[in-house]
Amino acid sequence: MTNTSASRREFLRRMSLLTATAAFSGLAPLTAEAARKVKPRKIAPSEKVNLACIGIGFRGGEIIRDLYATGHCNIVALCDVDMGAPHTEAILKQFPDVPRFNDFRQMFDKMASKIDAVSVGTPDFSHFPATMLAMSLGKHVYVEKPMAHTFEEVNLMMKAAKRYGVVTQMGNQGHSEANYFQFKAWKEAGIIKDVTAITAHMNNPRRWHSFDSNMKSMPPAQPVPSTLDWDSWLSAKPYHDFNKDYVNGQWRCWYDFGMGALGDWGAHIIDTAHEFLELGLPTEIDMVYANGHNPFFFPYSSTIRFHFPERKGMPACDITWYDGLDNLPSVPAGYGNVQLDPSIPPPGNGQIVPSKLNPGKIIYSKELTFKGGSHASTLQIIPEEKAREMESKLPVVPQTTSNHYANFLLACKGQERARSPFAVAGPLSQVFCLGVIAQRLNTKLKFDPKTQQFIGNDRANELLRGPEPRKGWKYFYNL
């Protein structure tokens, strides 16, 4: 690289950071075009990816350990709004000499030139700003599922990934394991074809099942823990007073912050069907059943039917989602064992109840029925007699060359293609956003995928975008 090109690159980096800094202080952005010209650093196959980590406790910490264990990255920065809390201690001890930050904006301001990629392991509602700023600076991004909290945020993230030319990966790990390669091979071989209906189910206890559905308001204000930067935790969302039932995983319970059981587990259950059946966006989302519906947190139980129209010679298909302890779907004759697959990770709040139906899916085609689990679990043809009949016709399923974390880092170096980039994971995440809107409004909705608007429901259309970002945070929506 010449001195001139290096100087230009540094100028563009600084211009982008100045633009961000101006926005944070309430001033108008400088030149957005300068930020758009920043390109990712080319990383040689022999090099390691310099990774900054945003969110280092709970699931964020697990992501960091899994990425680091691949041997393909250096951890160069750690960022968390609750740095010093008990749940961040393990990562801080593992990487004691790595620079630490409470605010990702400050991290990029000080260290952008030393970062190639970032992991974003924060609550659903705060994925968007960190991811957008990272991409605008030419940084590759691994972001936990679901991609974002609103339909419009996902749209902006997909467009930004394409505009900035960065590698992206959403954290649905099964997309790099046996489930992914089997579904792809069986679809290409014509084993999976003419699918007309899918049942998806996750019926284990959730954090909000102990809440009172007659709740009249959001929880009252409590003192903010001394370690927590509450203002940064809220990110772009409207101000809420602190309450312990918002943090440390509890955020998943609330419409204002999380995506419920659907956003949490949908990406592990229907991801391969959505991609390889090319389902895209539904035209109807019907809230068939809701137990414990209220304005603040997710129902105790939900049944949501998504209707996907005909496409590319494939028949229309309905996905019906079931969650809740009392809301198990019926299973077809010959389903077999309903006991849990021990390889499926437990929900975030701890345990899977052994007596419940295995989290997963049943896929109905015109000729065959398939039974599947979650994450990497592979499909079985049912009943067993039909499986034995089909055995000789099944194609060889290739082995994975890398797990989900290695796949991302190798993609950053140009050695592989990311398997769950935003172009693939985005429409899937938008399906969850549409489902959550139906849950929140407890109604049937008609949706036009071309205009990306609901038909005849103004409130639902408002929720596609969500509330206006707080002062100082709107900048990220213009990157």
What can you see in these coordinates?
The chain is α/β, with parallel strands linked by helices and 479 residues long. 32% of the residues lie in helices and 16% in strands. The protein is built from 15 helices and 15 strands. The N terminus is likely disordered.
Concise account of the structure shown:
Helices cover 32% and strands 16% of the residues.
The CATH class of the largest domain turns out to be: Alpha Beta
Element-level helix/strand string: HHEHEHEHEHEHEHEHHHEEEEEEHHHEEH
What is the share of helical residues? 25-40%
Q: What is the radius of gyration?
A: 22 Å
- Largest beta sheet, briefly? 9 strands, mixed
Low-pLDDT ranges: 1-8, 21-31
Rounded average pLDDT: 91
Question: What name does the CATH topology of the largest domain carry?
Answer: Dihydrodipicolinate Reductase, domain 2
Write out key terms for the chains shown.
globular, six-stranded parallel sheet, 479 residues, disordered N terminus, Rossmann fold, alpha/beta, 2 domains, Dihydrodipicolinate Reductase, domain 2
Strand-helix topology:
Elements: H1 3-24, H2 32-36, E1 49-54, H3 58-69, E2 73-79, H4 89-94, E3 100-101, H5 104-111, E4 117-120, H6 127-136, E5 140-144, H7 151-164, E6 168-171, H8 178-188, E7 195-202, H9 230-234, H10 260-269, H11 271-276, E8 284-291, E9 301-308, E10 317-323, E11 360-365, E12 369-372, E13 380-382, H12 384-390, H13 404-412, H14 422-441, E14 444-448, E15 453-454, H15 458-465
Parallel strand pairs: 1-2, 1-4, 2-3, 4-5, 5-6, 7-10
Antiparallel strand pairs: 7-11, 8-9, 8-14, 9-10, 11-12, 12-13, 14-15
Helix pairs in contact: 6-7, 7-14, 10-14
